[in-house]
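Researcher: Please translate sequence to structure tokens.
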Amino acid sequence: MGKSRSTRRERAAAETVVEDVDGGRAELIPDRDRPRAWSLLIDGAPQSHVDLDDPAHLSFEYQRRLGHVIDLVAPPGRPVRAVHLGGGALTLARYLAATRPRSTQQVVERDAALVQLVRRELPLDPGARIRVRSTDARAGLAKVPDGWADLVVADVFSGARTPAHLTSGEFLDDVRRALAPGGLYAANLADGPPLAHLRGQIATAADRFAELALVADPAVLRGKRFGNAVLVACDHPLPVAELTRRAASDAQPARVEHGRALADFTGGAAPVTDAAAVDSPAPPPSVFR
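Model: Translation complete:
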């Protein structure tokens, strides 16, 4: 019998939903501690966690760090206009809608079959102003009007790697074009020793933005293990003290690097261009065990 990537579906034990999507084998696994919460995995790699009863709950550490950035992009509760490059289970879009009602959001997620799966199994609040486009992240960003976004979040992975064309200065030029004056860019980056990718991404952002901060586990920053780091960039002073406080008080504490210390961390890395860009490094198999 032939396989249908977009329609084939099976229910395994404990109501896990398994379906082939454009990016591989998607699994929605129920959270035993939360009645209407689910984790999304693609080819075994954790992508998102969603609690339909409490969309403000962020389970993954890197998503909590991005949540801190969302909390600080404007005064509490104020609606914002946001662009999410990479959708997954739409966790951060749901979080922003819950914490900043009346916000307007655009999500760009290339995997149309994944979008259909998430919409069907983990439906969005009908009152949330979230528009989802199924296209390449950079192509979708190009359609955002000049100066429209208060916030652009990049969280794009294909096969657990960030595609090369989303790592360059030319890509950040389009991010800057889409940002409103005073807008903020945040990116989820993943790297391990010797941290060449992460250093290059910081150098690239520093070439385009006046202010940067990096939020990560100290062990990741020391090159002791593979992990995520959240890069924050803008052209106005960042709320570094408050970001540092939130990161330090998290269940999985993180360090915030900023200013000269962050510049020193790059170790002379050169900004990345489209011509020289490569995918981010693949995580070692032990990361997902």
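Researcher: Any highlights?
Model: Residues 245 and 256 are 9 Å apart (CA to CA).
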